[in-house]
Amino acid sequence: AKKFMTLDQLICDEEFQDCSKLVSVCGPDQVSLICDSKDIDDDTKVFRYNKEKTLTWLKRKV
Length: 62
Description:
InterPro entries: RNase_H2_suB, RNase_H2_suB_wHTH. The protein has 62 residues and is an alpha+beta fold.
């Protein structure tokens, strides 16, 4: 993903409606492990998928 999105936009998928349930278990701190993040204001944080962060996170899991 090249653009930043809110957590809801990042996780939700029209083809897989149940993906929206992930928002309740994946908070901003967890998503930041595999995404770049920016604070837009006091109430809004946006994310962009980062492949390198994901690979680093996965390597630590093994």
